[in-house]
Every structure is written in C-alpha cells, then in structure tokens.
Design goal:
By secondary structure, the protein is mostly beta strands. The chain has a single domain, classed as Sandwich (Jelly Rolls). Helices cover about 10% and strands about 40% of the residues. It is built from 1 helix and 13 strands; from the N terminus they run αβββββββββββββ. Strands 1, 3, 4, 6, 9, 10, 11 and 13 form an 8-stranded antiparallel β-sheet that branches. A hairpin with a 2-residue loop joins β3 and β4. It is globular and about 40 Å long. The N and C termini lie far apart (about 45 Å). The relative contact order is 0.24.
Length: about 210
C-alpha cells in the first residue's frame, strides 16, 4: 500500500513539473507559480523576498533571488524574458541574466537590467547597468508595466510596455562577455519596495 502511495505521489509531482514547463501560445514558460518561491533561492537576507497577494515582493536589506528551478535547468543563453513590475516611490531593483547563485554580495556574474523610476540613482529602467545607461524612466511608480528583455546572439534589447529602451550589441573588445546562466531579481535596500508577477521565459535557439 505504501509503495502505491509513493508511486502516485511521484507521478503527481512529475505531472506538475511537466505542466509548469508547458509553453503558452507565444512559447513562454512560467518561472513563478504565483503562490510560493518554489524554484527560487534567495541569498544573504532571505526575508527580503516574500509573496504578497500572488506577487514576489522585494523589500528589505540587500538580497538576490535566483531562479534555480527546472525550466531550462535554470541555465539560459538566448531567450526572451517577460515580467510585470511595479515600483514604489524611491525604489531600486534589477533583473539579472547570465548569472549564478552566490551567498552574498552583488552578483559577480552576468548583466543587470535596471529597475528604477524615482530612486536617486540616475540610471533608470531599461539600462543595461553600466553598459548602456538610460537617464529617463519609461514608466511611473505605483503602476504595473511590462519588462521585455531579449538576449539573442551578441545583442541585448530591453523594452518597456512594448517600446524599445536600449539595444546593445557586444563589441569584439568587450571586457564583460555574454554567456549563459540563470535569472535573478534584486532586493536593493530596505527603503525599496518592488513587486514582480507573471515571470515568463522563452528560450531561443543558440
């Protein structure tokens, strides 16, 4: 009897994982179930990230939330990432790609797509941080907006609500190279409150 129960539980888990990795009509696969942080791992200050009304909230001391789930074995090279974001006034955050989990500090690998409408940092949303920086926020606080990040070959494009903010092609002499890795959300500081929902990725051919 116990063996039957175990087999049924395992079958249910396999079915759930398969369903979670099923692409939608546009080819995107969800990375966030809207209920928990399953598939995600926070670094140094784990309480910075919580689930609030079905969204991931980043609010607290510096921490980074890395995707470590089954989709793509959390290792992406070329992809389109779409997510909905809301910033509260004066808040700062970011979406990293081609990164890897680390226990402490700012991510040492990968690239950051800035999230910032009114924080004192002049580098605003859409910036490929410290690579190509955008001075004018393409959205306001206290409103939901869609971030679309595309990495294809040597080109990175960021879009907000369907409008291109930056498009950068890696030069041959670039000090930091595009590679591969996971996705990460940033908890920047205790005064910042940023919400994320509907996080989806579409892997593209290498």
């Amino acid at each position: 009897m116990k063996r039957i129960v175990v087999v049924c539980v395992m079958a249910a888990m396999v079915a759930a994982c398969a369903a979670a990795e099923t692409p939608d009509d546009e080819g995107f696969i969800s990375l966030f179930d809207g209920k928990s942080l399953d598939g995600w791992k926070a670094s140094e200050n784990q309480k910075t990230f919580s689930i609030v009304d079905g969204k991931i909230q980043a609010h607290g001391p510096r921490s980074h939330l890395f995707y470590v789930g089954p989709v793509g074995n959390h290792d992406f090279k070329n992809f389109e990432l779409k997510l909905e974001v809301m910033t509260r006034p004066g808040s700062n955050s970011g979406v990293y790609f081609h990164t890897a989990y680390q226990d402490r500090g700012w991510p040492g690998r990968g690239f950051e797509c800035q999230v910032n409408a009114t924080h004192k940092d002049w580098k605003k949303t859409g910036s490929l941080y410290n690579i190509v920086n955008n001075r004018k926020a393409p959205h306001g606080d206290n409103e939901w907006w869609t971030y679309h990040i595309i990495v294809n070959g040597k080109t990175v494009t960021t879009k907000v609500n369907g409008k291109t903010v930056i498009e950068w092609t890696q030069p041959a002499d670039a000090k930091r190279k595009l590679g591969h890795g996971t996705i990460c959300l940033q908890g920047h500081d205790p005064k910042s409150i940023v919400l994320y929902r509907n996080i989806r990725i579409k892997p593209l051919p290498d």
